[in-house]
Every structure is written in structure tokens, then in C-alpha cells.
């Protein structure tokens, strides 16, 4: 997935950054949390919907790239409870989009997202409901690739709120930047500019200034398009085996890779490639 980070004024208080473009296919059958952990999806949806405001807008394009917009600019695109429910529904739509190959997530009005709406956070302040909210979002989000705009800054400000990441952010941050850097980012709330982001692996690329190379969204689409050329089933299979290797125990990841291989072996794209002898071109 691709992230491009926008205005630093927002990102210095954000839990994330920019717009996330992602290769599709969340492994919905392997939720991190389930009813075994006391996670009742219907119950938490009802609680979240009590806090309306904003929307999550989805545009699916013929290119196979969809654009998902976090739209709540009056609250700096903070997630209201109803927006969390919207996000889960939009992810489900994307899972069922057979022609989908990539997704870019952006914020409205040239900002990304300032985290959760504090009105909802205050109302769901007991540990049990807070954990359920994190579980809900964990089951909605998967992150892979990140882009930063040239004037952007990423900062993890959880400790200033008396918190730690709760959507799987800490565990994934350790995988991305290693434990030493994760400690610095979370414990020091360091501001990460594009240069440092590239250095520690938090950013996969940096977009150019808007005037010289198009809007951030246009640049993100161009950047993402180079990694999703080809049939949608193959691109989705690539994402699935990589995600399995990152998220699952080795034995389960190997089984998943074998299963996914079976879905493309002898498939239309494989047979066409064999017929055209394209392997060494």
C-alpha cells in the first residue's frame, strides 16, 4: 500500500500520515481478533454509530485503482464512530471488487487524519470498549507501502495522549523500522521528515513538489501503477503471499503460499504467458 503524506501541520498530531495507496486483498478469513477475544462486531458497530459525522467516500476506477477519501474536514478528518463503521463497509466492498488491484487512501481538504474524534474517545473511555474499538479498526486496516510529500512530517503522538498504538501500529512499526527506531519514534514522539523516513524505511518514496509534477494524488497513482501492471488476480495473489509472509507464522505462511500458487497456476494469465514465452522478455 502506498502512503503519501500531506501538510506537516496535520501530521505532527496525526497517528498516520498522508494518503495510503494499497494493493488490495485483506485476508478477511484471518482476522487478528474474533469472538474468542470478546470481540462482538455487531455490538461495537452499534456503539460506534452513536457518534456520527463525516464520511468515508470510495471511488473505483477502470484502472483498477480505487481512491478512498477520509472526509471530515471540520474535525481535521478525525474518525468519528460512524466513519469507523463506514471504513469497515468500504473495505468489504473492496474485497469483493474482482477488478481491483490498488487503493489510495487520502484525506479531504489537503489534510489526512488527526486520529479518532475525541468526542467518541471520551465516550468510549473504559478499557474494554476501547480495546473493542481497536479490534474493529485492526480488522479493517492493512498497510504495506508509504509515500511522503516533500513538505510532510510523520509523528507518533500516542504518548502525549497517554496511550500506545492500538490498531496493530506498534507491532507493524517494529517490523518496518526495527525495534530501536520504533522505540525512538514512539518514546520520543520524533518528527520524521522525508529524508529520515527513507533512511529508516518508514517511507518508500518521496513525492515531488506539487507544481512540478502534478497533484499528490496524481503522483501517488503514477507511483502505484508501476507495481500493479498485469491481471488483477495475479496482483492480488502477489499481495496475499507477501502479506502472509509478514503477518503469519512461517508454517501457516508456507501453506498459504502453496494455496495461492494453486489459484494462478494454469490460470488465464499463466497460460497466456506460456504461450507467448514471455518469461525471458
UniProtKB/TrEMBL annotation:
GO terms for biological process: fatty acid beta-oxidation. InterPro entries: ClpP/crotonase-like_dom_sf, Enoyl-CoA_hydra/iso. One of its GO terms (cellular component) is cytosol. PANTHER family: ENOYL-COA HYDRATASE-RELATED, ETHYLMALONYL-COA DECARBOXYLASE. CDD domains: crotonase-like. GO terms for molecular function: lyase activity. This is Ethylmalonyl-CoA decarboxylase 1. It comes from Lates calcarifer. It comes from the Eukaryota. Keywords: Lyase. The keyword Ligase does not apply. Transmembrane segments: none annotated. The keyword Lyase applies.
Amino acid at each position: 500500500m502506498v502512503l503519501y503524506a500531506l501538510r506537516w501541520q496535520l501530521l505532527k498530531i496525526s497517528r498516520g500520515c498522508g494518503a495510503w495507496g494499497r494493493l488490495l486483498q485483506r485476508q478477511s478469513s484471518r482476522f487478528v481478533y474474533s469472538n474468542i477475544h470478546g470481540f462482538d462486531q455487531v455490538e461495537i458497530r452499534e456503539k460506534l454509530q452513536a457518534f456520527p459525522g463525516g464520511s468515508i467516500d470510495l471511488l473505483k476506477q477502470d484502472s483498477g485503482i480505487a481512491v478512498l477519501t477520509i472526509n471530515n474536514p471540520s474535525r481535521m478528518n478525525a474518525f468519528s464512530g460512524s466513519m469507523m463503521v463506514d471504513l469497515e463497509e468500504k473495505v468489504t466492498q473492496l474485497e469483493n471488487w474482482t477488478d481491483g488491484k490498488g487503493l489510495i487512501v487520502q484525506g479531504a481538504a489537503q489534510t489526512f487524519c488527526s486520529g479518532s474524534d475525541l468526542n467518541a474517545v471520551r465516550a468510549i473511555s473504559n478499557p474494554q470498549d476501547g480495546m473493542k474499538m481497536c479490534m474493529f479498526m485492526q480488522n479493517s486496516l492493512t498497510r504495506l507501502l508509504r509515500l511522503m510529500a516533500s513538505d510532510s512530517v510523520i509523528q507518533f503522538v500516542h504518548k502525549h495522549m497517554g496511550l500506545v498504538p492500538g490498531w496493530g501500529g506498534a507491532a507493524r512499526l517494529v517490523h518496518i523500522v526495527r525495534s530501536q527506531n520504533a522505540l525512538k519514534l514512539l518514546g520520543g514522539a520524533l518528527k520524521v521528515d522525508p529524508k529520515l523516513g527513507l533512511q529508516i524505511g518508514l517511507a518508500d518514496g518521496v513525492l515531488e513538489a506539487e507544481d512540478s509534477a502534478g497533484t499528490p494524488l496524481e503522483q501517488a497513482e503514477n507511483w502505484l501503477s508501476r507495481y500493479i501492471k498485469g491481471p488483477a488476480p495475479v496482483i492480488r495473489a502477489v499481495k496475499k503471499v507477501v502479506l502472509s509472509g509478514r503477518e503469519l507464522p512461517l508454517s501457516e505462511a508456507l501453506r498459504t503460499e502453496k494455496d495461492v500458487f494453486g489459484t494462478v497456476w494454469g490460470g488465464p494469465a499463466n497460460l497466456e504467458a506460456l504461450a507467448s514465452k514471455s518469461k525471458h522478455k
